[in-house]
Amino acid sequence: MVFDTTTTLSAAEVFARAKRFFAERVPHSAAFPEREGPGYLVLRGQGGEEVALAVYPKGGATHVRGSTLLFDQAVERFLSTLPSGERVA
Q: For the chain, what is the total number of helices (H) and then of strands (E)?
């Protein structure tokens, strides 16, 4: 499943939060960094399952896309913890 959101955080801040979240806040199905670059982070967890996160600038905010097969609820919950990138007029 694929999930999307926008946030005011930088890519580095999103990835730092993701590493903490998936290591500490999801103890029954933790996932840990396997590969990363400036715009992506791949975490590997239970049974070899993968969580892939990608970020890119979009309209003055940071767009975050998360993809997984097993960690749907955890990815959706993680994205909900990020400060919104939506601008309120």
A: 2, 5
pTM check: above 0.70: yes
Q: What does the domain layout of the chain look like in residue ranges?
A: 2-80
The CATH code for residues 2-80 is 3.30.530.20
pLDDT in single tens digits along all 89 residues of the chain: 999 999 999 999 999 999 999 999 877 779 999 999 999 999 999 888 999 999 999 989 999 999 999 999 999 999 999 999 765 44
